[in-house]
Structure formats: C-alpha cells, structure tokens
Amino acid sequence: MSGSLSHLRVLDLSRVLAGPWASQILGDLGADVIKVERPQTGDDTRSWGPPFFQGDDGSAEISAYFLSANRNKQSLAIDLTHPEGQKLIRRLVAESDVVLENFKVGGLKRYGLDCESLQRINPKLIYCSITGFGQDGPYSNRPGYDFLIQAMGGLMSITGHPDGEPGSGPMKVGVALTDIMTGLYATIGVLAALTHRDRTGEGQHVETALLDVQVACLANQAMNYLTTGKAPARMGNAHPNIVPYEDFPTADGNMVLTVGNDLQFARLCEVLGNPEWAIDERFATNRARVANRKELIPKLRQATVMRSTREWVDVLESAGVPCGPVNTIDQVFDDPQVVAREMCQKIAHPNLGMVPTVANPIKLKLTPVEYRRAPPLLGEQSAQILHRIIGLSEQEIEALRASHVIS
C-alpha cells in the first residue's frame, strides 16, 4: 500500500452514510479501514434495495446503496452487545489510530466503547463521533436522518419551485447531501486531529453533527439572511445573487446558463442577437439584473427557444458563455469529460466479479487513490483481521464464531 494514509488504521463502527462516507475517503487515501458490523444483518444499507449488484453465478449480492460508500474496507462482524465482542474491539483499538462512530449520544458508553474509555487504552487515539444534533444541546438525544436535517436545517425551504407556481413547496435534494457533507467534514476533522497528534502525541475527540453541517453549508443563503434579517425564499433554479443563472427552455429541452459577470452577459446578448441588452441600464450590471430579473428573464426565454440545446451549447461555449445541458445520470456517465476523468471504475471481488464504483474525485500525483478492495460481503475478513492484528489462533476464532460473538 502506497497511499498517503497507508500508515494508519481506522476502526469504523459507523453505518448508513455519513460515517461510511468518511471512512471510504480515508480508505481511498490508503488507510487500513476495518468496518465493524452486526453479525447476520450488518450495515442497514446492505438491505436498502433494489437495486442489488449480483455476481455472475448469483451466489452473492450487495445493494447498490451499500456499494456507494464501502469500498477499500474489510468487514469484521462482531456482536458489540456481547462482552467478548467488546473485548475484541478494545484489543483492536490498541492497534488503531482512528475510531469512527455514529451511535446516539452515549450509546457506546454502556459497552465501555466511548471515547474516554478507549483513550485510556490508547491515549493517541483519534475518536470521531457523528450524530444528528451534536453531543450537547436540547436535541442531542434525538436520532438524526438526512431528510429530517434537510428540513430542519433550512435547505428544503430554499429548494423547489416558488410559492404560487405549479408544483411549489419544499423539496429535498436528490441525494442525501447532508450526510455526504457531514462525512466530508468528519474526514477533515480527523485529518486535522492526526496532524495535531503528529506534533504533540495527543489523541482527541472529533465531533460533527448533521444539523451543524447543514447550517454551515447554507453558505451565501445564510449570509443573505444574516445581513438583511429576511429569510430567503424558494426560487426554483434561479440564483438569489446572480442573474442570469438558471435553466432556460430550448427547442428540444432545457439548458443552464451560469453567467457570472458582466462581460459574459455581453457575450450572451451578442449570441442571442440582442446586443442592446448589455448596455440597457436595467441589465448592464449584475446588480441591475438582479433588481430587474422579472423583465430580463422572459426576454431571454423567448430567445433560447429558437435553437436546440446542442446548438446553443456549441455556439455559447465558443463565445465564452458558461452553459450546459441538463443531463440525466446515464448521460453523465457517457459524457466525454466524465469518461476522460475516469469517474467510473471497476474493482475485482472474489464472489461478485468486477464491481462498478464511482471514482474518488481527489487527484494526487505522488500518492494516487487506489481501488484496492470492492465493498466486502458481511464478515468477509473477520477471521483474517483477528488473526493479523491481534494474533488470534484459528481455534480461538472458531470458538468465537460458535458462540455467535463473530460471524
């Protein structure tokens, strides 16, 4: 292993998406990631389907959802409610650098697997906790789910058609974006804590919460509110601070215009055959266009319906106007840029054959991401992990399996 983090071992006690997303990134960067799962059932997302990816002979299958967040990991199936299972985790912690968990607040304390208990075993341990609402505050004991947090954290209030339009109402994003962003923040926190440990030898508790992350990622919309006292409203695909920056109809579908400055707007007007708009005081500057969007947008829409999406994209790109089609996901993976960037990879699995995966977007020249392991079957590496890391014999492992401590 030659990845940037190949000197590190991560014990991943998390499940579903935010935690597994973080541990997958760490695994992609070279860390030895051990995914701890419940015997018999495993991570909840193993059953979240269809669709399922099935091996050629039909002897094994894994849900597409599980495949999305669990490559470059090994599966160790241990019953954490069993005292012997807890002992195994403590022995693994002594040989690990990072523990990642997303249990409810205090959920692991009853098993002696909380941060304070495990750092007594390994003072250099980085212990990362992901929760819905944080370790403190009035909501700290509530479970958190992405859809719920998108609603409570304000994202759904600014996503969807405006009130009064057909289909209006709050709308969630099409993927569990808050979970994914929380996984990214958790990864950053772990890397920061590891850097601190490299300098001081100290481990620490890293904590991130879905609600905190969602509030932080309101970005300019949060600042729009904090600077004006007025809560932003849903605007469909329009942008609150930039015009034109939304979707427009074409002769055969839709395209997106993302005009970021006045020079780009002047080029757009030239291509559309209306150069006078660029010097009209109502539209000449972005500030004026934002104030007068109700007058400008219908004019643009009347012009864009005159050609096909492909024709507009070709001519606008040549003129230096940012634009593009509204692709379906099959079109995304056929896009020549996506193909050139090798964003679809395949990994060999002993039971499933070649398993597809979406590539990690981080490009490192000296220590590139490697797709070493396909997402594992439940307990696929239990025996070898216990033998390799804590030296259990074959007889000891079989005894644990007979007692249903592991599978």
SSE map:
Blueprint: E1 9-12, H1 18-28, E2 32-37, E3 52-54, E4 61-63, H2 64-67, E5 73-77, H3 83-93, E6 98-101, H4 115-121, E7 126-131, H5 146-152, H6 177-200, E8 204-209, H7 210-216, H8 219-228, E9 245-250, E10 253-258, H9 262-272, H10 286-291, H11 293-304, H12 309-318, E11 323-325, H13 329-334, H14 336-340, E12 344-349, E13 353-358, H15 382-390, H16 394-402
Parallel strand pairs: 1-2, 1-6, 2-5, 6-7, 7-8
Antiparallel strand pairs: 3-4, 9-10, 10-11, 12-13
What this model shows, in words?
The protein has 407 residues and is α/β, with parallel strands linked by helices. The protein folds into two domains: 9-216 and 341-402, Crotonobetainyl-coa:carnitine coa-transferase, domain 1 (Rossmann fold); 245-329, formyl-coa transferase, domain 3. The chain has 16 helices and 13 strands. The protein has helices at residues 18-28, 64-67, 83-93, 115-121, 146-152, 177-200, 210-216, 219-228, 262-272, 286-291, 293-304, 309-318, 329-334, 336-340, 382-390, 394-402, and strands at residues 9-12, 32-37, 52-54, 61-63, 73-77, 98-101, 126-131, 204-209, 245-250, 253-258, 323-325, 344-349, 353-358. A six-stranded parallel β-sheet has the order 5-2-1-6-7-8, sandwiched between helices. Strands 9-10-11 form a three-stranded antiparallel β-sheet, covered by helices on one side. It has a two-stranded antiparallel sheet with strand order 3-4. InterPro entries: CoA-transferase_III_domain, CoA-Trfase_fam_III, CoA-Trfase_III_dom3_sf, CoA-Trfase_III_dom_1_sf. This is Crotonobetainyl-CoA:carnitine CoA-transferase CaiB. Keywords: Transferase.
